[in-house]
């Protein structure tokens, strides 16, 4: 399976050492970049995707979230410094405590039943993020793969998503149509359903990539930190966050569909979200991200999106 994760390299270890960090250690690597512990309660992140032009805005978003730290039961990132090396963005951030809740399902598949410590931690994170108001800086963010701020020209989150879907399908829609019967009908139904959604009240911050490695916990399983905002971060309906989390929590394990269904029911019950809206948002996410890691359909994420779009609703 192709995971498209950046690898740690001796080059970057030496890079940070040359800048006076004496105990550089590889810490984590993911789709957006690789993180190194620098030994002074900071980490260096080498970005593989976002260009330097967007980091100032992301720094503002981090500050907006941190402004609500007193009411959050977990820490969130803070960018302390930014630099560029050979065209690659490097950020220095405050090191966040705890350990990853679990490895990604592409690496270690979870068992048939999700552990209570996982669902409890995820509920805590969803409640916390839903209490952080969406800000102008969050609305100005561009989600991965797109070419403009998600909210540009829109006053409602569902309308912004509707236009995002139309733009995303124009990128490589023929590729997706070859694997998804009646793609045009699915897109039309999705866009119409989004535009028909009622106003849902104030928007909150959306992380957009709540997978187990991005939630750190302590020895009791309580969340201590939420990491790696940026992949699909925006201001939006907290139900969208819940829908995406239910879908991506286990993408590749043998019980992935079972876990998505379990989490979708749980979130609908706990937060009184409409199950139909959660299914709609899950379909939006697949239509918006299907081609982010290749333009030929040869990666696991593309196949996962096809599965979401062809699954009976």
The spatial strand order of the largest sheet comes to 1-2-3-5-4
How many distinct helices? 10
* Oligomer class: single chain
Integer-rounded radius of gyration: 19 Å
Order of secondary-structure elements: HEEEHEEEHHHHEEEEHHHH
Describe the sheet with the most strands: 5 strands, antiparallel
Low-confidence stretches: 1-5
Strand content: 5-15%
Helix content: 40-55%
Structural class: alpha+beta
Structural notes for this entry:
Helix 5 (157-177) packs antiparallel against helix 6, helix 5 packs across helix 9 (275-289) and helix 6 (183-196) crosses helix 9. The protein has 313 residues and is an alpha+beta fold. The chain has helices at 10-18, 55-66, 116-130, 136-139, 157-177, 183-196, 238-248, 256-271, 275-289, 300-310, and strands at residues 25-29, 33-37, 42-47, 79-85, 88-94, 99-100, 204-206, 215-217, 223-226, 234-236. It contains 10 helices and 10 strands.
Short overview:
The protein has 10 helices and 10 strands. With 313 residues, the chain is an alpha+beta fold.
Salient structural properties:
313 residues; alpha+beta; five-stranded antiparallel beta sheet; three-stranded antiparallel beta sheet; 10 helices; 10 strands; 14% strand; disordered N terminus
